[in-house]
Write a structure and sequence with these properties.
single chain; Glutathione S-transferase Yfyf (Class Pi), Chain A, domain 2; Neurolysin, domain 3; 5-stranded mixed beta sheet; two-stranded antiparallel sheet; 25 helices; 7 strands
Length: 673
């Protein structure tokens, strides 16, 4: 155990884990030691005979679990970004143990009594604002977690939490396996007509890596696939869409339908046990939305206009195609109609979106102009996979802020989608270093070929780096509030704001250069992009809202509900929402809805558009207050990004904006006035 690198402080910059020294068999012993260590730390708090105070209860509680935090960060980054059969087995083993450990702390009656006692005299303690908010958050979270339940109910709650942790882990494992298994194999290159050479090269490389001849179109996490906008062979498009929609419903080992039914039933039972009418009520009680009715009010306000816009859009596509529009047709013909109406061809933009330029001269450039930070690649530092690059991030005064790990390419060992992880967070209480990771799933071309990004992939790079900035800039005293540790329905806000810089003239002009000729993207093309911003928003808003309302429907069932068919439930939920057009499927169907059944967004997928209200309002503020300037950036950093979760997020927003957000900018953006 003394040689386990997971249990020793890292000597690398900012505490970067020594990945080259970590082997898979070291994770379980490290978890076991970390569990025992934190339980001993909590036991010392509850054994203190002195009257509970902030200093003898909350400070040691915040200091506890440092080893577990580190081990979990490293392991779950590995399991999501570079998994294997051994890691999957370890995750299934560890998940219920982690749930049991968390319950042992959050349901500890002695610890809860100390937290409650300090909370009761909060007004008399003279604490600073962050310390006061720490007490409030702990009391609310322990209460929501069931700390006030009787012993019998606590035992049932522990059993529910344990089983749920196992099932959600299995859902993710099954989905990854089925997604890999359903990749579409193409024999004849002519069937890939419409794809540019770099995409064809990536498909050939994907086939080669699996020992196959020909070409392989690997699936992405959402229902749609980027290649559907360019593949001219309708049969191939249908094969890709059919494969995507088939995930989790084919029977056999990878089927997820029983998991969906069991997970939602257990969540409903747990909600009742905790005093809530359903899981959605339980989740939103601890978010800015507060109630499912508030969520439903927003979603139902947007859905009719979005559906009507999608219907109108489909009529235009049908006229262009000369036949009825199916789900596998939408992306291709929407691009053709966009080109006809606005003379915009997003596929033709790919030569201007070479990945390295987008990263350095776009994403990094915008961050430098806003916040003064700089980036230096560190090839001497080893990450968890050879494709992952490490950058050191510096403040404007030259001091080191943290490390940024960039993992661009898709692989069979990585789950779908794009996301941000952290591998360490600096706080004033504990010190330490900050390490953040951005994961993407861009197809990797053959050696020597350029990595050309789609329009959406460029947007995703800016989006995920917004999360990274949130993690890098966190300047809090307590680990509980560090970086992105904010309410789930607020966490997407900073990342959505960062998307605005993608098309900001000064930024776009700096990175959008043709990868062969070096010429700038034509200014008139950019103008046409702006003119077409509301185009296809009926489809995009409808597919998102369908998933968000499906998530809410699954989690508004009560504990007595008898749901036996995933397909029937989903169809009824979409019909009730008025979003059941087969040509506009939900962004995620139930059987591959990783956000809600394994990704922590259960009853919370609404948070993207909930946060977008703040985002759209903030974009207008930037336009009114200097745009890409240090003054504007520093205000946003100091009053929002830097505070992490150390104050109520809507209070932080009011401090930044000078008022509450209004919804009108969002309605204009999405064409929903």
């Amino acid at each position: 155990m003394t040689t386990n690198p997971l249990l020793s402080p890292s000597t690398l910059p900012h505490g970067l884990p020594p990945f080259s020294e970590i082997s898979d068999e070291q994770y379980v012993p490290a978890f076991e030691r970390a569990f025992a260590e934190q339980r001993e730390e909590v036991a010392a708090i509850t054994a203190d005979a002195d009257e509970p105070t902030f200093d003898n209860t909350f400070i040691p509680l915040e200091r506890s679990g440092q080893t577990l935090r580190h081990v979990a960060e490293v392991f779950f980054n590995k399991s999501s970004a570079d998994s294997n059969d051994d890691i999957s087995a370890i995750e299934e083993q560890v998940a219920p143990l982690l749930a049991e450990h968390e319950d042992a702390i959050s349901l500890d009656p002695l610890l809860y009594e100390r937290i409650r006692a300090v909370h009761e005299k909060l007004d008399d303690l003279g604490l600073d604002d962050e310390s006061r908010y720490l007490v409030v958050r702990y009391f609310e979270e322990f209460t929501l977690a069931g700390a006030g339940l009787g012993d019998e109910d606590k035992e049932r709650l522990k059993a529910l939490n344990s089983e749920l942790s196992t099932l959600t882990t299995r859902f993710e494992k099954n989905l990854l396996a089925d997604t890999n298994d359903l990749a579409v194999h193409i024999d004849d290159e002519s069937e890939l007509a419409g794809l540019e050479p770099a995409a064809v090269s990536a498909a050939a490389e994907a086939a080669r890596e699996r020992g196959l001849d020909g070409y392989l179109l690997t699936l992405v996490l959402p229902t749609g696939h980027p290649y559907l906008a360019r593949l001219t062979n309708r049969n191939v498009r249908e094969r890709v869409m059919t494969a995507s929609r088939a995930r989790g419903i084919r029977g056999g080992d990878f089927d997820t339908r029983d998991l969906v039914l069991r997970i939602t039933a257990l969540r409903a039972e747990r909600a009742r046990l905790l005093g809530f009418v359903n899981h959605a009520a339980y989740v939103t009680a601890g978010q800015t939305a507060k109630t499912p009715d508030a969520v439903a009010g927003m979603l139902s306000r947007l859905a009719p206009a979005a559906a009507a816009n999608a219907t109108s859009e489909k009529s235009d596509l049908r006229e262009s195609a000369g036949h009825d529009i199916e789900s596998w047709d939408w992306a291709l013909y929407s691009e053709r109609v966009r080109a006809a109406k606005y003379d915009v061809d997003t596929a033709a933009m790919r030569p201007y979106f070479e990945a390295e330029r987008v990263l350095r001269d776009g994403v990094f450039f915008a961050a430098n102009r806003l916040y003064g930070i700089g980036f230096q690649e560190r090839p001497d530092l080893t990450a968890y996979h050879p494709d992952v690059r490490v950058f050191e991030v510096f403040e404007s005064d030259g001091s080191s802020l943290g490390l940024f790990l960039f993992d661009l390419y898709t692989r069979d060992s990585k789950r779908g989608g794009a996301w941000m992880n952290d591998l360490g967070q600096h706080t004033r209480l504990l010190g330490g270093g900050t390490v953040v990771v951005n994961n993407h799933n861009v197809p990797k071309p053959a050696d020597g070929e350029p990595t050309l990004l789609t329009y959406d992939e460029v947007s995703t790079l800016f989006h995920e780096f917004g999360h990274a900035l949130h993690g890098l800039f966190g300047a809090t005293t307590y680990p509980k509030f560090a970086g992105t540790s904010v309410f789930r329905d607020f966490v997407e806000f900073p990342s959505q704001v960062n998307e605005m810089w993608m098309l900001w003239p000064e930024v776009l002009d700096n990175y959008a250069r043709h990868h062969v000729t070096g010429e700038r993207m034509p200014a008139e093309l950019v103008e046409r992009i702006h003119a077409s911003e509301a185009f296809n928003q009926g489809f995009l808003t409808s597919e998102y809202l369908a998933a968000a309302m499906l998530d809410q429907a699954w989690h508004r069932i009560d504990a007595d509900a008898d749901v036996t068919s995933v397909e029937d439930f989903e169809a009824a939920a979409l019909a009730d929402a008025g979003l059941n057009d087969t040509a506009v499927p939900p962004r995620y169907s139930s059987t591959y809805f990783a956000h809600t059944f394994s990704g922590g967004y259960d009853a919370g997928y609404y948070s993207y558009i909930w946060s977008e209200v703040l985002d759209a309002d903030t974009v207008e503020w930037f336009k009114e207050n200097g745009g890409l300037s240090r003054e504007a950036g520093e205000r946003f950093r100091a009053r929002l990004l830097g505070v992490g979760g150390s104050k109520d997020p809507l209070e932080a927003y009011r401090d930044f904006r000078g008022r509450d957000a209004v919804i009108e900018p969002l309605l204009r953006r999405r064409g929903l006035q």
